[in-house]
What does this fold into?
Amino acid sequence: MDGIHRREYHVRNLSTRSVTLFPNRAQIVRDIKNLSLSPGTNEITIIGLTPTVDESTIKVDGTGSAVITDIAVELLPNRDIFEDVYPDSSDDASDVESDHGENVDEPPPPPAESPELGNLRSRLRELRDEERRSKESVESAASRLMMLDAYGKSLDRKENVDIVESIETYRTERERIFDDHAAGLAQCQANARLLSAALEEESRLVKQQERAAAAAARERERARKERAKEKWKDAKRRAERRREKERVRREREGFWPRVCYTVRVTLEAATPTPMSSRRTSVSSDTVHAFNNTAARVCKPGEGWELSCDLDLALSYVTSAASWAPSYDLQLSTTNNSGTLCYDARITNETSETWANCKVVLSTSQALFSGLENSIPALKPWNIKIAPKYLNGGQVSDILDSAEERRQRGGWWETQRRAGQASKPRSQLFGVGSNPFFPTSSSGALRSYQSGLMLLEQQKNNGGLFGQQQQQQTKGGLFGQQQQQQQQQQQQMQPQMLQASAPAGGGAVAFGASMSHSQAAPNPSRNKSALTAKQDMDNKDYRRQEEQGHPTEWSVMPTSPDENVDFQESTVEETGFTTTYDLPGTKTLPPRPTPSKQRVARVGFSNVVFSHTVVAKYKPVAYLKAKIRNSSRLTLLRGETGLTLDGTFLGRAQLPRCSDGDVFSLGLGVDPAIRVSYPRVDVRRATTGLFSKENSSVYTRAVTVANTRAVTVANTRAAAAAGKPVSLLVLDQVPVSEDERLKVDVLAPKGLAVDGPGVATGRPARDGKDEADWGKATASLRKGGQVDWQVTLNAGKAVKLGLEYVVALPFGDSAVEC
It folds into this structure.
């Protein structure tokens, strides 16, 4: 037998054919195209599947000349290295510091001397030299004169001196000395004038140079500040890049699998038999039979070879990807219309990126509780009067039966086991220690484990919600306390189970086979009440189209004038499931926040706006919009943004609404409708002298004013402002539970319980123009509720009166039950 031919593929390198998203999970189909097999046994290994895969949903199909003989699924540690898949970019060129900060604090160079100033200073040096020569001439003349005088004084001590000749010599020399002295003084004065002018010019040039140097210094300072600013910006950009890299790394680490599923597919390719002429005589009792696409090739000197190509398709389901509806509803009171933008919030919290794939949204829960869960049969619930020594006259324990508690406990035990099967996300994702030997656990994991321990203890003590405990012999008081504690425990345990489950808890977070409205037994969800409310809304409308509709259609834009900025999805209904095929191909990478994809845009017409007034509690008018789903789409429950006449109001919860049904949305308080509700007026009723009854007449009045003007300057708003408003005003009269206490309605006259409506109401203001305020019809319901259906014109006000009498035996008083 030939050896096994092995080949390995990483899931990230496989193309993604399609991704079908469900409300709580997703199904992925990947392809291996043109896979060449060697004759004999081939083992194809696919690694890197996200750890959130439900291994029981992994399937391998294919087309080609081979037989799938075995499929093995293992959960193994991730062999990839985080740094190899996501190389560290800390050494990028973008992170290298620039030279903006170089030479920032270097002292400035000395200012260069201008040529003009240099020439002037050279001239100054020459003038100073001339000045020194002039002074030297003057001083020389003075010294010679002194010497001449000294020579003249010395003649009287000499003998044989020719006095005439001496005097002539003295005169001649003195004149020569005087001429030299005068020339030196003149030269000094001339040099002084030239030197003064040169000094002034030097001062001017020095100041000019100083101004230029100051300007240069200011320019250098500005450049220094610019360089410092650029350096600060570079540092800030580098810090921002580092923070962004850290954020991206943390995000990638959050989706980096510690463990991955590995799928090993064993295939048998055809082994040729040259002596046989029956090429196709092979048993076909396998997944895929051999066909004629395999070509037998014989090479010289070699045996027969078989060239076999086939395509494999790997499909699996993960609980870490889903979609949820998101809406944006725009309502207009001018033309009573609305536009609903239907979006899908797609979540991918797996470790895989599904690139260039077809995305399909499905409303199916895609999760079943198992065939072992058969439909339970109701068992008889027999009760009897408990002995007085056990009950003590307290309330009997007949809130639920023992079988009900047992079945409910078994159901939540199944839910607990389903949630326990999914590992916490901290053990499946992250870069760190060995996932099979974790060194620490998060707070969510500890809380989750504590909740499981509590549930396990309660199970051992008699079921998840507790079985019917043995009757105690301590008296009625202790029995009642035990019963109340048991009821509180039953109400808290579902909440504890949901609160203690981890974020990636899989079936615990989404439920097993139940829908969202059935995920918990808490009656506060009031699904039946919501259904009843929708039924009441449907009664106010008449269906304008038949129930039958085609199984596939394309959602069209609301009007041809709208700017279509997206492609509509294709909708298809199959039984209980609706699918939306998003146009084109999409890439869904793992990310912590959902991405939004447009599914459809739906237009609503004939939107009914109405007001409800419960002045007894709050003197305001609540605006409500009643909308018929005239599209072919089933609107799922989800959040919607509300915009009324171009003003964003906030976010609300859109209820589930099938095609043709009606849903209502509260739009808050309408400040244009003013309501006043004065205190009740009480007076004694007129009775006979010897009457044995004490009667009191109570008078109430509700005043409602429509402050919208009849005409306004804005033509578009005039249509809404001038229209009458529809109001439902609610009040009540007390209901007697004692035959001796009688309550009768005096006004409006003619009211009877569930009887026909009575016209009532009068203008709240005086004036002839106030007579045409509108109309109102009053009716009396069970429970003492009085309804007024009011149509109030713009700018008008109406006063609705309510008067009733309470009669009771003389000497008694009435109190609330």
Observations:
- Residues 273-305, 434-561, 712-719 have pLDDT under 50 and may be disordered.
- The chain is about 30% helix and 30% strand.
- The CA atoms of residues 447 and 636 lie 32 Å apart.
